[in-house]
């Protein structure tokens, strides 16, 4: 595999300029590729950090066996062989479900074993509010034991969630008052989740004081729904979000480009039948990394 020492001079210079800031790239665009191929590609485009993505509806189907200790060992070896570090992992579930403590504990252990210190997830459907609060009391203790921070992310599916907007997220973080809890705000999710809000970048900026991590993602709305684009080429207002993030240099950022899917007008995700060609993924990532690194200088 080609390591980061083989990146081009321009890529190396850009990476060095943003060295203080952890900028990850989500594995979401590599839906349909095995990790080894994805990591080799990420190294080729000049990424320094990978954010593994285990998100139902976003990626190939998986079950809890994906988080076994042997899988974690193999995953970490592959990422290290490509020169990629891991700070955050996305693994979204509804934390109000009856088995949420068992399932999410296994995923947190996997995240810790691959080197992550942040794990992003959804909160819960509003109807499961009581169970969510009870489960979180346990999960925050587990997060302390494992050495992780749980980052609650706003969904994009239009449902009635405990975290629909920045105000909801700020209230949840205040309620728990835990160093092991923060937000992973995603303005592009808000676009399909609560389109009437309008100022999606503005809501992201409101959420930022409680964020321990953010997803930077861009899209355009068409008659067929919401379609993801390279960062800065959509309508979310990523430039404003990145400008606000400049004042928080210790907050990690992840570029998330789920290029294999779009969201229908009802906000439900639809995946292409086939994986996106590697050349298309790499072109979108190179453009996005250049935009983000330039904005954060």
Structure description:
This protein is α/β, with parallel strands linked by helices and about 300 residues long. The chain has one domain: Divalent-metal-dependent TIM barrel enzymes (TIM Barrel, Alpha-Beta Barrel), CATH 3.20.20.150. It has 10 helices and 12 strands. It has helices at about 10-15, 35-45, 70-80, 100-115, 130-145, 165-175, 185-195, 200-205, 240-245, 280-295; strands spanning about 25, 50, 90, 120, 150, 180-185, 210-215, 220, 225-230, 255, 260-265, 270. The strands form 2 sheets. The chain has an 8-stranded parallel beta sheet with strand order 2-1-10-7-6-5-4-3. A 4-stranded antiparallel beta sheet has the order 8-9-11-12, covered by helices on one side. Helix 6 packs parallel to helix 8 (about 200-205). The longest helix has 19 residues, at about 280-295. The chain is globular.
């Amino acid at each position: 595999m080609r390591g980061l020492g083989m990146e081009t001079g321009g890529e190396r210079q850009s990476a060095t300029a943003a060295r203080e800031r952890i900028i990850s790239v989500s594995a979401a665009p590599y839906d349909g590729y095995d990790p080894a191929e994805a990591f080799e590609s990420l190294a080729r485009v000049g990424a320094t950090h990978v954010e593994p993505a285990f998100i139902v509806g976003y990626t190939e189907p998986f079950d809890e066996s994906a988080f076994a200790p042997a899988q974690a060992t193999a995953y970490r070896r592959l990422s290290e062989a490509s020169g990629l570090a891991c700070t955050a992992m996305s693994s979204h579930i509804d934390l109000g479900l009856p088995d949420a403590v068992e399932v999410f504990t296994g995923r947190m252990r996997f995240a810790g074993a691959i080197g992550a210190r942040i794990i992003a997830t959804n909160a819960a459907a509003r109807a499961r509010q009581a169970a969510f609060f009870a489960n979180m009391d346990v999960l925050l203790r587990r997060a302390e034991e494992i050495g992780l921070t749980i980052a609650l992310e706003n969904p994009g599916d239009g449902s009635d969630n405990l975290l629909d907007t920045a105000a909801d997220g700020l209230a949840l973080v205040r309620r728990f008052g835990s160093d092991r809890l923060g937000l992973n705000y995603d303005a592009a999710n808000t676009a399909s989740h609560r389109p009437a809000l309008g100022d999606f970048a503005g809501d992201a900026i409101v959420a930022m004081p409680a964020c321990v991590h953010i997803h930077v993602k861009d899209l355009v709305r068409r008659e067929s729904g919401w379609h993801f684009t390279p960062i800065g080429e959509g309508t979310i207002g990523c430039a404003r979000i990145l400008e606000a993030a400049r004042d928080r240099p210790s907050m990690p950022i992840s570029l998330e480009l789920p290029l294999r899917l779009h969201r229908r007008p009802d906000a439900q995700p639809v995946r292409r039948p086939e994986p996106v060609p590697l050349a298309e993924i790499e072109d979108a990532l190179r453009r996005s990394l250049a935009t983000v690194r330039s904005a954060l200088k």
